[in-house]
Design brief:
It is built from 2 helices and no strands. With 127 residues, the protein is mainly alpha-helical.
């Protein structure tokens, strides 16, 4: 290889020209790398926010499902209580009697003093 192949007429080597050409290509690539890095950071933050929101939504859905199950159980219990109340209030068609406010003492007699003491049980009224 002769010196004519690597030297230019202006006194610079071709390698220096190649380095300058590569440097001029490197600047836009560095700008692109910085831009892509920034976009990646923004996308990662958005992805993390979306995942956090999805986790909260999943938790809220589980809570809503549990609340729905509890509501259904309470609704069924309420229906049973209403049916019980309806049955309890409609059981009797008898007229209501006033409550006894004062009790009378029951007379207690020894059997030998009873007027029915000498009577055969077949003659006792009510038997």
């Amino acid at each position: 290889m002769s010196l004519l192949d690597i030297a230019r007429p202006h006194g610079r080597h071709r390698a220096v020209d190649e380095v300058q050409r590569l440097r001029s290509q490197l600047v836009p690539l560095l700008i692109l790398i910085c831009d892509l890095s920034r976009r990646l950071a923004v996308a990662t933050a958005g992805w993390d926010a979306a995942n956090a929101k999805a986790n909260r939504l999943s938790s809220i859905e589980e809570t809503a499902a549990e609340a729905t199950r509890q509501l259904q159980a309470q609704t069924a219990e309420l229906r049973e209580l209403r049916a019980f109340k309806a049955n309890a209030t409609a059981v009797s068609s008898l007229t209501a009697h006033p409550a006894v406010t004062e009790t009378q003492p029951i007379p207690v007699l020894p059997l030998h003093l009873s007027p029915l003491a000498g009577v055969s049980p077949s003659h006792v009224p009510g038997f």
